[in-house]
Amino acid sequence: MKNNTNENNLFSQKVDRKKFLLGAGALASSMLMVNAEKKAKRKNENTSLPEAKFTLAPHLHASFPKTYSTKERVEAIAKVGSKVYQIGSPQKFDVDELKSLADDYGLRCASLAGTGTIGFSTGLTVPGKEKLYLDYFTKMVNIAKKLKAVNLVSFVGKKQKDIPWDKQYKQIISGLKKAGDIAGEAGVYLTLEPLNRVKHPKMTVLTAQEGFQIVREVNHPHVTLDFDIYHIQLSEGNITNNLREGLKDKLIQFVEVGDVPGRNQPGTGEINYKHIFNELRRLEYKGFIGMEHFPKPDFETAYAQIKELAGLQ
Question: Residue 237: which CATH number?
């Protein structure tokens, strides 16, 4: 009896092992089919959309550690195949050196900061400060021309507690029209950037809708909006509808990306950037996309991830 029992146990183990192997094989086959279906779905999705016509512009400041030299930054951007970069304040670089390096690698500048600290303080909201604002903007326009930059990301100052809002608003509209003339003569754009009410509550323009209203009222072909998705998400959300409205009405000249929280690259946070990039393709946005965010774990990895999300590879 004991021998029969052992034989039965061995037979049972063999049957169970056979069932396990068959089950594992079926599961693996099923997983391969699912992965193949997902891949085909992604391929069909990408081919059903218009070709991506926008251009990624890595940020010369935010994309790299502070220890990187200008040459190392420019070389890294060129190495990933980009032909465009953006900067914040030009004063953080030797502009002549940057121009020389960019020319050597065939790079051009998508954007730079147009209003500096003036845009974050008195801007166009304090009476008597307009000339200071316009003189500084003119200086940045000249640097933009040297670097072949297109967009000058600009702000119009803090809200002033002791000045009626309607007076501040009229000064903003009047000042931006004059700044638009300066930009127009140089063939560049003042791109007004709404910040966010979480980190910059004292600033004047804090939502896309506020920015749209100002751009519409200024009504100047060289005064447009910088649609920074990181700030829009923190202030108001509604990214897709705002993007559609702004591009349809030709209010948006420049788009910047960064995820929430942390302002790291798209795909690291709560924003559905796959959808947003697809929407930009559907809307046939042809401008630059500024990569003003902090890459994780490094620039090269983040750039490759964004290219894939954006449908550029």
Answer: 3.20.20.150
